[in-house]
Each structure stands twice: as C-alpha cells, then as structure tokens.
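Hi V.,

You were right to ask for the full record rather than a summary. Here it is.
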Amino acid sequence: MAISTNSTIHYTKSLDNLLQILKNGFSLKYCKEDFFWKQKKLRYAYPMICFCDIPLSEVKKHLDSYGHYGIGLKKDWAVKKGLNPVLYLEKESSLSETLMQQIMRFDKNKKELKTDPNTPKIDEVWRQELITLCSHIKNYDGDLIINGKEINNYRFYDEREWRYVPTKLELKGNKRAILQDIYIADKEKYNKEVGKIKLEFDIAEDISYIIVKEENDIHKTLDFISQNFKKTLSASDMEILMTKIISTDQIINDF
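Predicted structure:
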C-alpha cells in the first residue's frame, strides 16, 4: 500500500470555501507557526497555502481536524508551482540545534544594531534564505490546538504536509514573516493584502479529485461547475471533471 498519494490535497471546512477555490484559485493567508527547541520558541506567521499527500484510505483523522471538503491537485502541478514537503524536526536533534543557533545569531545582530548603528549588519541574502527555511519547518511532534481543543504530544509528522510559500518577489511587498503578536493585533489587514495573491491551477488539467462531505454536496458542486465553467470548458472536459467529485462518506466507507 502506498504511503502517499500522487496528488497534493488542500482540505477546507466548508463547501463555500471549496467552490470559491474552484472559481478563483487559492488565496494566500498568514499561518501562525510555533517551533519549539529545548527551552526556546520561534513564533511567527508566514504566508502559505497548506496541502498534504495522505492516502485517501488513511485520511479520516485528518478530515475531522481540517475539514471534509478538499481539492486534490496532481503532483506535477505541485512541483511546477514550487510546493515542497515540510521539513519535520525533532526538538533535541543536532539539525534543530544548528538551525536555532543561526536564528539566535540573527536576533543578536538585530539587538546590537539598535544599540550600536555601526554594528556590521547580517547579509540580506542570508536573512532571506533563513526566512525561507524557517517557513518550511515544523516540529515532529508537540501540542496542537484545533477546533478549540488542545491535543498533547500530537505527531505533526503524520500530516504529511506540503506547503506553497511564495518568494519575496511573488509577495509583491507583503511581509515574508511576522512576529505572532504583531500579526494577531492586525491580522485582518495582513490577510486582506496578501489574500489578493492567488495560486492558480487549470481546472481541466490539474485536478485529481474534488472532495465534498455528503452526497447532497455533489449535486451542488455539479450545478456550480455547470454555471461557472460552461463557457470555458469543453463538453468532454466538463464530463471528466464531474467524474472526479467524491464524498467523504464514500472515502470512509469504500477506501
């Protein structure tokens, strides 16, 4: 049995969210990420869109946490768009130690610059590379708060997460990383601006499947596709796309 799918799947909590993605593409949003290393915390918000490649036969637990609606895109689309699997790090590992030492070096330099403007500034290219790396890391396990509930010792590694994290150029002036306290104080503003940036796909070529919660949602999705894409999709493309819709009831019972 395969331990990953040939698709990257984005899950969401409502049919309306799913239909808007089909119509407009994915909208960027800042996501809060906590990385714990020994007694230290790295707490930032990064702009991203999250996917996973968990096989449908193993996805029930993920559905309960992240939503019963989703869209699967082919892996070659993911590669073309620059998605990458998350780098999961064990808190006590030498790799975590190395990464956090580099982050502490950067923080130390920022503090020194505030007290002494003549302090040599860390190279900007290196800083951008560090942000890129940090936006793709996650603890192997830790505490998770989801749907208002806290789960202790949750194994993030089991989520098989892939991320789309835009480059500095793609962000068009939006921030690549924001301290969580600053982000939380004005998150609507930050997300409104970054949400104008879209991750697009070809609805006829790139979709592997469309996941809805119930059989009744299939009919609503079919109607939406017919109304919004009849001028842009050929009859054969429309027919093929409609065969890719599956309900989570089917997934739970048949896979």
